[in-house]
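Field reference: sequence -> structure
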Amino acid sequence: MTGAFEGSYRLTAIGRSQWRSVTIPYQTFGASAEARNLTENKKAAAGLQFFYDQAGDSRFSTLHVNFSTSWKISLDNNQDLYIGIQPGIAQRTLNYDDLVFESDYLGIENAEVFHTTSLTYLNLGAGLFWEYKPRRNKTQANAGASLFNINRPEQSFFTNQDIRLDRRLLIHGSVTQQVTRRTWLIPHAMYARQGTFQELVVGGQVKYKLSFSPYENKNFYAGLSTRVGDAAIVSVGMDINDLYIGASYDFNYSNLVPASHFRGGLEFALIYLIPEKQDRKQYKTCPLFM
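Structure field:
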């Protein structure tokens, strides 16, 4: 979806904290910057992404720095297809000072020794994104599919080359349907699969337009989704001109409830769009005679 937005640049920041009621909370932070219309025919876009995640007693952390680029193909006046690739570099580290192993109960100190506590690897992703946005139609739609970890990088902190990162498939789509002058319905779905693990998220949002002024863009969003078999997700958001502010919370209802007490993850997001510079029309000045 690199470059799939209205404007010249898009800046994004996101933060998430999960499982605070169960263990040391899992913390995730991300930021990205994208630029559109990098060529004269306005087909190319590029972006830079940063993600950092830390989990558990070992402070197991993952750092991703990805470069993404896309090429837009206009299918007709209402449809565009984006082809994207995403090469990147990642680093994973752990600290086992606070971990307890079986040997600790036997009085054997430092019996567990990792070959390394840090590993760095290259990663590659690619995807397609289709967008249907007619100018004078009350219905819009989009769909996409991406494949990550294509090169299946090694993941072992020992010397086992057979332990590799599984490829991850992601499929998603949404429809935006205007139902009244002020209200839109936005159903959406996402499916992800990695190795033997999979998840399905389905739900929707209601968009309510707060202002019809040509100089303002103010909308309110409220949504409800479910990660099937795991959590209910409540979300709210707001457009304030070129800034979007959003928040969501996961209410866990899986078999982890005795430990989670229905609490899951809190997430915040900010998106800022820098609009395209409008060319001023040239007018001839009429001289003024007294």
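Note: The longest helix spans residues 102-105.
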